[in-house]
Amino acid sequence: MKKAGKDRAAPRPCPCCSGAAYEACCAPYHRGEREAPDAVALMRSRYAAFALCEAEYLWRTLHADHPDRGEPREAALRSLRAAKDKLSYKGLSILDERRRGREAEVLFCARIAERAEDRSFVELSDFAHDGVGWRYLSGVLLSLGELGRAPEGLTIDAFLAIAGG
Predict the structure, then answer these.
(1) How far is the C-alpha of 121 from the C-alpha of 111, rounded, in Å?
(2) What's the topology of domain 22-163?
(3) What pTM did the predictor assign?
């Protein structure tokens, strides 16, 4: 006799590293069922979208002023999908955030590998609310080597001092 629930698979953890199951975390954003409520949630959902190759979501959450919006949509989607075969996503840490009305900054550390070579980086991303939802506008990133210190405890102001901004 089988025990109730034994045949059910454990919920898949969300790649955004929130600790929640994917279906309860970033999946509704990826499916377009709702918008991320803030810039941090959008950042997490975009990281998860890169990890899961949700290219359409990545395109949809780019701000209209982002430079990639200047290239043809299909070319951008092909490029995003091609990265899936080369990159593996190991973890995400939100380090700091700042919000001013309809604009926000999120500092994060993305742990990424390309064919077993570490490509991890820290990025300060700018987001803007376009009246519908939060959108990724731009970012400044430093590899962990360029950062010259452990990312833990890093603030936006400290990152800007290191990055020369």
Answers:
(1) 7
(2) Nuclear Transport Factor 2; Chain: A, (3.10.450)
(3) 0.91
Q: Quick check: 14 pLDDT over 70?
A: yes
pLDDT digits (tens, 9 = 90+) for 16-41: 999 999 999 999 999 999 999 999 99
Q: Which residue has the tokens 């997490």?
A: 44
| C-alpha–C-alpha distance, residues 28 and 15, integer Å | 14
How many angstroms separate the CA atoms of 117 and 130, rounded? 37
Within 13 Å, how many C-alpha atoms sit on residue 159's CB side? 26
The domain ranges of the chain are 22-163
Provide CB contacts within 8 A for 156, sequence distance 6+.
96, 97, 98, 105, 107, 124
